[in-house]
Each structure stands twice: as C-alpha cells, then as structure tokens.
C-alpha cells in the first residue's frame, strides 16, 4: 500500500461522525489463474464489518482485468478496515478464491484522492504471489444530506450487496436483494439522522424519502421471456460420442435450469422461462450448457451471454448464440415486455376502494375479455396489516429484554416483495398493500415473517401458505403462523386482508398449459424421513389398487352371492351395450356421487394422519441436519450413492403425488378443478356420442403431424398432466390447511413443532 501522509489515527475512537468513502476500483494485475485454460473470470467484493457492501462486475478470461467501477460507502467506524476479496467466477459451481487484502481506513487522509495498490494474499499460502488490485479512494466527512444522497446512489450503482439477513431466499446474489438490504440499512440510518438532526420535521421528511425508495427498489420494470428451443452440434462429452445436455440461465438472483435431454448432440428442449427485469438499461443473461454425469461432477460444454440492452422491447427476437469455450450453438426466442402490475403502497392508497379503479380492474377481467391476453388471468391485492405475539428472537440488554425486529416477505410464485422492518416489537404494524398480476389461479400466496439481524442471518419467525382459490375477498383474517415445513404452528398470528379478482375462462385455459417454473432454490438432498414418507405414500396408492383388484376378485369367487349376482348382471349389460362415450360418462358419475356425499354430509372418510406425522418427523430431522451439518462430511464422499437415492426418492414422490392428485380430483379437494373436470368430461361424452371415433382420431393425428409445421417453436405439453399438476397432493393439502387461532396466541407445546 502506498504512503498516505497525515493519518486519522488520532481521531477519538468513539467518534460518532459519519464518513463517506468514495472508492474507484481501477484494475487488477497479474492475478492468479484458476481455470483450466490458464485464465480466470475475476470479480471483486468489498466487505466492511463482516458485511458485503459492494460487488463488481465479472471480467471474463482475463488476468489483468479493468473494471473502472465506482461506489460510495457510508462509514461510521474508521477502526474497521475495508476487506477486499477477489474471486474467479464459475457458473454453476462454487467460485474459486483468488486472494484478499485489507485497506486501513485510519491511514487515509481526509478530503484527498489517494491511489492505492493492494497485494493479494491467501492466508493458507502466504508466500504465493496472487497479483495486485489498484484502487482510488477518497475519504470525506459526511452529513445527513450527503448520507441520504449516498444511499440513494448506492441503489442505482451497486450490483450486489449484503443479503445475509434473508437466509431462506433463493440465490440472493443480484440487484434485487442488494436493494432490499440497502432499504433495511437506510431504515436503520434514520436513527442516525435523528442524532444528527434533532428536529422532528427533518426526520419525518427523511423517513418519507426512505419509504418511497424502499417501495421503488423492489418493483421490476419488465418481464424477459426466454424460450429455449434447441441446441445444435454440441460438443461430445461422453465416451459414446454423445452428451446428456442441459442449460442453466442466470439474470441477477434469478436462476433456472432446463430439463436433461439424454444422448444427443442436437437436443430439443422447447421450454420457457420468465425473468424479472429491474434495470431500465437491461441486463445480461448468463447461459451455460452442461453434460449430466451420474456419480461425478457434470461436464462443462460451453457458455454464452445475452445483452438485453441491445434488444428492442415488445418484440420477439430469434437468437442463434454460438457457445464460447465449446462447440455448437443454442437457438432461443427472447421477448421483453413492460410490466406495471406489481405495486407497493400504504393503506391510505387502496386501488379496490377507489370506485373508478375498481371498475377498471373488474372490466379488465370481465367475461367479455376472456380471450384478450390469456396470460393475464387476474389481480391480487394483499394487505399486510399487523402481527401479534411473535416469537422473541433477540435477547439484549442488562435486563435480558426479549424482542424481535420483524419484517414480512410476500411471495407469489417468482414474484417477491417485502415490508419495512419494525424494530424491537413483537406486535408490529406494517399497514402495507401489495398488488400482483395473477398468471395462474392455482398459485399459492406465501407470507413469511423474519427477524432482521444486522450482524448475521435473519431468524425465521413463521410462515403461512394460502392457495388463491381458498381466499375470501375483503375479509380480514388472522392466520396462525406455521413452521418452515408448514406442518405445525409456531408462535404468533398475522393479520391479512386479501382480494382476488380473476377471469374464470382464462384461468381454465391456463390450467391446461404448462405450469410456471420456480427459480432454482436448492439442490435435492437425501433425507431418510423424506424417502420413507414417499415410500409410504406410494404404498397407499398401490394398496388402493390392490384393494380394488381384491374386491373384483371376490365377485368372481361369490364370497357375497348378492354382490356377485349384481356385478354379473352389470357386466353383461355394459359389455353388450358398451360405447366409447361411457368411459367419460362413468367418470362423470363418480364425480357426481362424491359431490352428493360431500353436500349431504355423508362423506365419512377419516383424515389421514400418516402424512402429517411423517411431515413432523421430517421437520425434526431438518432441525438435526441444521445442527449437525458440519459433521456429515462422510455423506459428501458418497456422492454417487446419494444421487441415486435422491433420484429414487423423487421418483417415489412423483408416483405418489400422481395417484393422490387423481384421488383429490374426484374428492373435490379443489372445487374449481373438479367442476372443470366435469365440464371437460361432459364435452368428451357428447363428442364421443355424436362423432364417430375414426373422425376424432383423424383430427387428432392431423393436429399432431402439422403442429410443428404451423408453429415450429411451439412448446410441447400434455393438457391432462398440466391439469393434474394444479391438483394438490396430500402433502400440499396438509401444508395449505389453515390452523385455528389460539385465543392466547401461545406457541405449540409440542417440542417438535417449535422451531426455536
């Protein structure tokens, strides 16, 4: 590090003043190579007080990268050094550490631009030369106004910041979660503003500014729709001269993974993924192609990038992207569309209470608009009012005062918004209104409460999951918070008022289309309890079939003569008069019979507690996994066996879920879907009754053969499977079940249901 002249070392240690540190990240020189090709893809992180405050862009394939990026950092303690860490970016894998260095802030001279050269070191290999980082820094005293402007700029400039206080949010590494963290930090800084400006009027003005910035920082400006069509002439990675390719996408914190196409160099995917676009100038989508290998790490095939700033909006672009560091290219369709359906406001600004706006929303989703913009199914408004009797996550002070700093995260599929933090309060009031655009009426609204911790990851306080079709409009309800697995209660309730307006025809059509994929959240893990639970679920499905076969067999054996005689006469009648339309007609009669049992109150099916017990046992195992995760290094060495077991575990889950969804369709678990099934079966019955089978098969065959000619980039789907994917399995029914409120708000006394 160069010499700085006069230092700030003589400043009082307890100096409460605020400082602004302007840092320009110039370049790197002779950085260590971490990739097989003898290069690196370096990026830089700045940390202050254990918190990440800046992350640079990635410069690909360069050991002498030039960044020329500027950032402003608010400093409240000059004794804490600025920690600089350099990494080699590896998409899909853990990034490689290149080196680190410290910048002593007390050595900087105030109001003087200083060029700094930092030599990178690795604590494990102190003698290795890992290269140098060049910076320009300027330390200046800060006041309330400068602090406000600094934080305002930081939202626009920084590409990444600290996000550790949202531990369960997937892939918190993009602009979005950086903004959320900055919002939290800015709310914290209002306390500093009070100390700097003891006038209430100034504090109120700043609070309003910060609240406004908090709202704007979360809202995306558009949707990027990417359709992965195919790959051509990809590189062969397996011994048989072929590959098992799949594709990973990343835009900020948003990540997707395509399906695996086995044994081909020209795969056909035809999958669609939607990204939120937060920056007006666009962004860059990182795309990597991998070869799936069972029992070892997947092979890298190639990469490419899409610069969204070069694409025009409201237009579909066909792109043929050649792969770097590999062979072949990908064919994609990319569409950028504007989005204004997501908003955050205070309770005083209510769209549905404004008669004019309400009429416009009702008109937009009226039956007359059923074929206009099929993807716009409905409108959701969520009022997050308050919570009561939350769990105390923090114990501070001489008197061991228990408190929490709660904030709320509201999620609908991949749409995520959050409230501000209410500090030191177990009964917080947020009084916020969130609005979402509904793309699938079978989505589930998730509201999660966290306790914010400045120095470590946030604590989970509770969660509720509410299917949109179960919502009663305009009713303020107290929802009992559940644990992470949604299997039992935890302490506290949250008060919500939810309104859903949707077009039933659009919702029905959307039901027969592929379900929206969620961001890649975490890799599937092997769980003994989960494996056992899926096995028991599949066993129940098989036993139901075995019971039916035994019942039919008993008719043949004349165990009950009256029953066998009735079955024999029914068999003769059906076979002699059988027509194809009788198949959907029989399913219609089964649905009608179950509906009659439910309406008449004669449905005496007992609640199956096996799934609930298994879920609770699984939660206990999750708690043990969290505590003992560092002691399971041996499992990591059994990667191949674990992957096979996870595959078996997932197959059992899919088989069991398929059977449970069929059962729940006929059991009227979701009335909307059962009525939709009745309409579809009625139409099929009429068609099969009046139209000869040969004509139906002819139309079906012509449609299948000409589909790719009429629409070469159509996404393949199976309407029946898409319909069943919306029906909840028994596990999901348990998770979405609304718990009754305890008048005392006391937590569950069963230890297994208490995540604390």
UniProtKB/TrEMBL annotation:
InterPro entries associated with the record: C2_dom, C2_domain_sf, MCTP_C
Keyword check for Transmembrane helix: yes
Keyword presence, Metal-binding: yes
Membrane-topology annotation of the record: Multi-pass membrane protein
One GO CC term on file: recycling endosome
Cell compartments where the protein resides: Cytoplasmic vesicle, Secretory vesicle, Synaptic vesicle membrane; Endoplasmic reticulum membrane; Recycling endosome
Key words, A-Z: Calcium, Cytoplasmic vesicle, Endoplasmic reticulum, Endosome, Membrane, Metal-binding, Repeat, Synapse, Transmembrane, Transmembrane helix
Protein name: Multiple C2 and transmembrane domain-containing protein 1
GO biological process, any: regulation of neurotransmitter secretion
C2 domain mapped to chain residues: 1-118, 204-321, 355-481
One annotated GO molecular function: calcium ion binding
CDD domains assigned: C2A_MCTP_PRT, C2B_MCTP_PRT, C2C_MCTP_PRT
Principal place of residence: membrane
Any Pfam family the entry gives: PRT_C
Signal peptide: none
